Task: structure prediction
Amino acid sequence: MRSVDELRSLVEDALAELSPAGPAGLDEAFRYALEGGGKRVRPVLCLAVGEAVGAEPEEVLPAACAVELVHSFSLVHDDLPALDDDDTRRGRPSTWAQFGESVAVLAGDALLVEAFRLALSYETPAVARELADATHGMIGGQYLDVTGSADDLAALNRLKTGQLFEASVALALAVRGSEPQTWPRFAQEVGGLFQLVDDLLDGDGHVLVHGEEETRRRADEAAERALAALSELDADTSVLQGLVEGLATRTA
Result:
């Protein structure tokens, strides 16, 4: 089993080789959006699940990169003035602030198309189908967010954040043709954990609704449930256990 750092390195190398078929200026914006210093949690999760069910990381790598591309697409579009209107992302100008709104929209489109090109590289259509379902869910969550029409915060977060975490697991299973077992429950808990800790670090979301102490308690319980789901699997989940523990205690 490869470590989280080794899996992350595989992802970074694979992403560095990607390029949209188009003008050089579009490629520059594409690369800028993709190389923004993210933690690559979703593709690493995808690769680690793949290894746990017996796949070589290289076999799952296109699917893992596809998830990260969809995530990057969502960030580029979320930052636009028409949505969240954020001119910075991870300590530097957001894509639209660096290249202009029109180019940022096109760069986001290119990221999404490249994601599905990778997903469609598999013989089974299940990989692309799982990614499409998750992307639809994520976009629906963003709609609920920008229109203020979400019924509750947990439901919103499961769509906006959780869908790609669930896809990270589902795509690895689809590549391998593995049975779901308790993997969906694990995926849902990891997505919830990630969002809860994000809210603790940013001081918003659940923290504003429930307070810091209650949000911390919910994050700890989500981590416990994720680990419990892993313990029921007949697989070597040691890397995934470490990933969950790292997400629960992260400080950035």
Q: What stands out?
A: Strands lie at 88-89, 92-93. The chain has a mean pLDDT of 95. The longest helix spans residues 153-176.
